[in-house]
Amino acid sequence: MAREAGVSQTTVSLVLGGNKQGIVIQEATRVRVLEAARSLGYVPDPAARSLAAARNSLLGVFSFTATFPTDERHSYYPLLAGVEQEAAAQGYDLVLFTGSSAHGPAATTPEALDRVRLADGCLFLGRHIPARELRRLVQDGYPAVHIGRRDELEGLAWVGADYVSASADVVRHLAEAGHRRIVLVREDDDAPASTDRERGFLLGLERAGLPGGPETVARTAEPAAEITAERVRAWRAAGVTAFVAEETDTGGAWRALFGAVGAAGLEAPRDLSLALLGAPPADLGAEPVPTGFDVPRTELGATAVRLLVSVMAGEEPEQGASGAVPGPAVPGPLVPCAFRAGATAGPPPETAPETAPETAPEAAPGAAPDGG
Fold this sequence. Notes:
Blueprint: H1 2-5, H2 9-16, H3 27-39, H4 46-53, E1 58-63, H5 76-89, E2 93-98, E3 121-125, H6 131-139, E4 144-147, E5 157-161, H7 163-176, E6 182-187, H8 192-208, E7 217-220, H9 223-226, H10 229-237, E8 242-246, H11 252-263, E9 273-277, E10 291-294, H12 297-312, E11 334-335, E12 338-340
Parallel strand pairs: 1-2, 1-3, 3-4, 4-5, 5-11, 6-7, 6-8, 8-9, 9-10
Antiparallel strand pairs: 10-12
C-alpha cells in the first residue's frame, strides 16, 4: 500500500490509525493513502488495532452457572438484557463466559479466570464465586464488577439490589396487617443475597416491635424435605400467621413453602399470609402473584455496566449506602427494589391460635440456633 500511494509505511500507519499522534500530514498525502487503501480492498484488522490501542471495545460477562438463560422467565434474563442495552449505548460489544468447565465457581488453578482478559473489563454474577481467583484478578488491576454484594473481596467493585430495605418493608406490611408471629424460610448457605434478606427481615421485626429470636428464621439445606405440611401445621399451632421465603436461583425455599401450605390444606391469604423476597420460579408463574418485592434486574444490569466503564476509566466508584442498616459505605450503588402488593397476604385469620409473642414454637424443628 505504501508503494501504491508513494509514501512511507509509517505514513500509511499514521493515516489508517487516525493520526492520534497529531503529526502534520498534508491533506493530499492523506487522500492518496486512503485512495490506495480503497483500491487495494484494505480492511482494518480489529485484532491488530485492539493490540495497538490495548483495548478491544469488549465487555465480558462471566456467569458462575453452567449456561446463560434462554427462557425469558429466568431471573437472569432481564439482568442480561439490561447489560446488553447499556453496553450498546456505551459503544461496547459483549463476550459471554460461563462456569461450565473447570473454570467455574470451584476453580482452583492460578489461570482459572484468565480467559476473561480477552475483554477490557468483566462483570461477574452468581451466588457463589471462586474468591481467591477473583481476588487475584482485582489485585492485578483488571477492571471487574460483581453484580450483587461482595464486600468480602477488598477492592472489588460491585452493584447490588437493596435487599435489606426491601425485606424490611415486606415485614412492615405484614405487621401493619396485624401479624405478630412471622417466620422466614431461607436456604442454608452464606450467599450475600440470602444474608441481606435475613438482615432486612430481622430489622423489620425489630422496627415493628415483634420477636426476632432464633425461632423466626428457618434455615434449610433441603427445602423440599424439611419444609413439610406437618411443619407448617406446627408453626400455625404455635401462633405463626405469616411466612416469608427468600428467592434463590433454584426457587427451592418458595416452592417448598408454597407446596407445604397446600399439602396442609391451607390457603393464602384465607388461612395464613405468604410473602416472597423476590420473584417466584418460572414453573409457579401461573399461581397467584405473591406479596413481596420485585428486583429491578434490568436496571441492575445497566448500572453494573456503567460502573464497570467508570472502573475501566480509572474513576473511583460512587459510594452508596442502603439507608436501612447503619454501617460503612459500599463500593458501588444499591438499586432499590419496588414493593409488590401481590395476592397472598392479608390480615391474620380470626381463628388464629393465641400464643404469647415471646414463646418459641417448640413444634418448629430445624430453626437456626444462632438466629440464622
